[in-house]
Amino acid sequence: MFKITTSGALIALYIFDGNDGGNPQAPLMQGTDGNLYGTTTYGGADSAGNVFKITTNGALTGLYSFTGGNDGGYPEAGMMQASDGNFYSTTTQGNIFRLEVIEPPVLSSLTLTGNTLNFTWRTIAGQTNQVQYKTNLIQTDWNNLGNAITATNSTLTFSTPIGPDSQRFYRVVRIQ
Fold this sequence. Notes:
Layout: E1 2-4, E2 10-12, E3 29-30, E4 36-40, E5 50-54, E6 60-65, E7 80-81, E8 87-90, E9 96-99, E10 106-113, E11 116-122, E12 128-134, E13 143-144, E14 149-150, E15 155-161, E16 169-174
Antiparallel strand pairs: 1-2, 3-4, 4-5, 5-6, 7-8, 8-9, 10-11, 11-15, 12-13, 12-14, 12-16
């Protein structure tokens, strides 16, 4: 894989060695997370191709290695990302596959309005998230704050009054 700069310089991003994939034929698809996703027709653990993601800086992560059995194998088509956040494509063996994206929630803003703390975070539609807190980092258990929330689009917002504790640590976790 390579990239071309705006000045026309060709830069190698990644060279497959066969173990991590080989013979990529389809175009790459840029996901909503900014990474590039693609398939190789051969290579991988069982030499039946694989699905990968690569950053624009060239860091490759193998996501799935086909067996050539019930999962088909030997993908040659490009991938597409649907509104549910997952990627879809086909194999030369006639299988349609889905690559489920499990993306952690990413906090985009935290504001204090009066006595109310407002969280906004990036997520994927259909994913369920839970806001949690604890009063110190020595505690092992987190406490749920309110009910779990299922996203209907790419952002979620949650508001809560400031608790009676002198300090609180917050996090948002993906439930499903």
